[in-house]
Structure formats: C-alpha cells, structure tokens
Amino acid sequence: MIDLNHGSGCNYGQGAPRPPIATAVSAAIDSALTARNRAERPRTYVSSSGLGRDCLRQIQFDYLAVPKDEGQEFEPRILRIFEAGHRAEDIVAGWFRIAGFDLRTERPDGRQFGFAAMAGRFKGHIDGCFVSGPVAMDYPALWENKALGASSWKDVVKRGVSIARPVYAAQIALYQAYMDLPNPALFTALNRDTMELHTELVPFDARLAQEMSDRAVGVVQASEADEWLPRAATEPTAVVCRGGMAAGKWHAPCAWAARCWGERR
User: Does 237 fall in a domain?
Assistant: First the structure.
C-alpha cells in the first residue's frame, strides 16, 4: 500500500513507528543501569564519603539504609556520572604513572586500600597512595580524585577544595588519620568537560578528622539506641533539605526530606 501522506501517521494497518535509534539505545542502557543499581546491596556502615554533610539525620538515614522518598532514587543520568567519575580515577592514575609517580591504588588481590573501625560499622576506601614521584613533595601521600562538571571544577580551582567542597575535605582528613598518612594529601579534580586537571596539596587537619570520627560514633550509637539525630534545618524549605547553594556551599536535595518531615503532614 502506497502511503501518499508519508510521515502523517495515517498509514492504516502499520504498527507504531519505532523510536529513533538514539532514544532506543539510551532507554536500553538506562534500564540496565537502573536495574544494576537496584540490585546492589545497601551499605551497612557509616561511609567516610558522606560524613561531611551538614545534616546528622541525613547521614543516619544513609547508614540505616532507610528507603529514599518516592522519585528520589538516582536517575540514570546521575548513575552515568558516578560511573564516569569512577573511570576517571583510572585515567588520572594512568597519567601519574606515565609521568613517573609510584601510585598504589589497590592491593595485590585487586581490592581498594581502606580502613574499618567500630567492628566494621565505619569504613572508608581511598583512591590511592603516592609512594614516590618526580615532584618534590612529602611521600607517602594520600591521593584523592574527583571528576567534576565545569562549574564545580572552576569553583574548586578558585577557592580550593577545603572551602569549595568541605565534604571532600572531611573525607580527606579521615583518610589521612585512619590510614596513617599525615603528609599533605594530593587532591586532583578532573574537569569532565575539558579534561583539565587541577591539583593541590591538602594539609592534614587533625581537628576535622577528630570531629568527623566523633560524628561516625554518634551516628552508630544513636542508631543502636533507636534515637533520631537532630536535623540541620528547622523548616523543610531549608536549602539543606531541598537542595541549592547557601553560604557558598552546594547542598544536594535530601533524598529523605519527605520522610523526615512527614510528621508535619
């Protein structure tokens, strides 16, 4: 049958047009990424990567693997960004190695280096450790790498990681303390858009490390006592709950905001 109105959709007896190849491929990949993420077992420990967040209750929700609010699971786009960030570690590590650095990123059995405390209820895994290299700095030194979008990357370059991203600074301090690496850490930030690399030395902040360690203890103890830790906000409209910039700090939207403030409804 000749379709004299090609593209009009009025060709009776034909099935619905297939989606463009880009849409079909993206949908297949997104579905697979979502399924893989849902199949992962939730963490059963306080992670060093999130202890620098402002809200203690948010950290506690994460530790207890409390189900996130409806619609707050990671979107496929975010899962792609997470994976790209993880792969970026391998890229940057390779650059360091061809430049002559002795960078250790995993144990002989392939596992990451890390620490565990409180009978495994508090853990952290480092990106790597510099043992030696062609640059004059103190060795051994912790290596922490992040892959950032252009805007976040420029902010870190301008203000430094400790001010621009205090969550990362807390993570670094904990690793330096628990891994017995008190020399200044080498922090690198890869611009995902331009592949530019920012590098800075981060001195060991013992006070911050102790504060974050105490936080981990508080989260575990409160959870064992069936007590909820205080929120960082007094209203659900606060930036720490809904997400956004406040006082020069970026807050991701809280994935448990509706559950946390549910008693008001």
Answer: no
